[in-house]
Amino acid sequence: MSELYMLNPAAGCPEPQAARLVSAAYDTIRRRYAEGRHQIGAAIIAADGKVFVGIHLEAMVGRYSVCAEAAALAAARLHSDQQLLAVAAVRYPKPSETAASARIVSPCGGCRELLLDHAPTMQVVIPQGAQGVFAPLQNMLPMKYVGTKWAQLPTTTP
Known about the structure:
Elements: H1 16-32, E1 40-46, E2 51-55, H2 68-79, E3 84-91, E4 103-105, H3 109-118, E5 123-128, E6 131-136, H4 137-140
């Protein structure tokens, strides 16, 4: 295995909490990586400091795939009523990407919508050059869809 596969992108995070989240996402996907099935790991931290992780679940029919951020959100909501503070996701390279290393990735548009539905004040670790820095998730989706299902956006599970 190439040394690049061993490089944890948390080393580029100047903020300790961002580094903790990126490390958790990286460790999860490094352990659970399966080509064509699991390539991204995500971690969410709650107000009490607990970290919840998830992995990307690829499906034969692409639209039924589940993003790692959604899996981490489900784990967080299954085990905690705490406010969710921040999320990070890491993409692990395929074996054919010999010159690539694991890297921080931003949530897709669907995950941005989903995360904002459940944690409207959440921060996200985004790649900025060689670093991973926090940004408000709501700034990444400034025109969020607002439906009529809920009277107001929940910050914790009822």
